[in-house]
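Protein Record: Sequence and Backbone Structure Tokens
======================================================
Scope: a single protein chain, as residues and as a discrete description of its fold.
Tokens: labelled as protein backbone structure tokens, with as many entries as the chain has residues.
Position: the record begins directly beneath this header, with no further notes in between.
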Amino acid sequence: MSFQELLARFVAAVEAGDGAALGRLFTADGVYHDTFYGEFEGPAAIQDMLENHFWRDAEAFRWDMHEPVEAGGVGYANWSFSYASRLPGVEGKRVVFKGMSRFRLEGDLIRRYDEVFD
């Protein structure tokens, strides 16, 4: 699978709230480091993060990846990310921000995901 195909599956899983699909993109000891919620290791923990953290606090996710590059088992992409909040007092408010991600790859799977954003 190409890096672009991996990104497409990654984004589709997040936008659909499909934690099992997101978890399947990671190695058995793969790590997703989320700037809001912290670090999650392994497909089951990553599934839980998406379904019980992301989708608990927000909905209507949109993640657009830009300028993806990959070489030597490391991929990068700039992105814009948005969602509608479910948090009390700001329900329905759209949140938008930009950042970049680094994917450490092992074959067709993600060994480690990290992000930075403003």
User: Anything to note?
Assistant: The chain has a mean pLDDT of 96. The first strand starts at residue 26 and ends at 34. Residues 99 and 117 are 4 Å apart (CA to CA).
